[in-house]
Amino acid sequence: MEENSMNSMMDMMSKMMGGAGQGGMPMMKDMMSSMMPQGLSMVLSGMDKQERLDFVTKMTLVLVDKGCEGLSEEEKKEFLKGLVDQIKPKKKKED
Fold first, then answer.
1. Which of 20, 23, 33, 75 is a good FRET partner for 65, with 20 to 30 A between their CA atoms?
2. What's this model's pTM, rounded to 2 decimal places?
């Protein structure tokens, strides 16, 4: 997806979710929070390896940037540590 179209889509979604003083639909945030992970799962499974890696990288950067918005440096460190801890591959127990 081109950067311009991604930016306009993010702008549109922000307006729909009530961002930037636009009013928005109150249920949109809840709907996106539950539906987006399911939709991403379906979309990602249909992408080739490089396309999938590029998409996940872009989405992760947006999620981390917006997820850290308004946090202190200490809160950002904790947020990122918690995120990394959750996405690290788990070591398999050896018998």
1. 23
2. 0.61
What is the residue-wise DSSP string for 44-88?
HHTS-HHHHHHHHHHHHHHHHHHHTTT--HHHHHHHHHHHHHHHS
Nearest to 17 by CA among 3, 30, 35: 30
Closest CA to 30 of 42, 45, 18, 12: 18
CA nearest neighbour of 63 among 81, 83, 47, 43: 83
Per-residue pLDDT band for 80 (boundaries 50, 70, 90) equals very high
Give, in order, the Cα–Cα distances in Å from 95 to each of 41, 43, 88, 91: 33, 37, 21, 12
Task: Report whether 18 contacts 26 (CB < 8 A).
Answer: yes
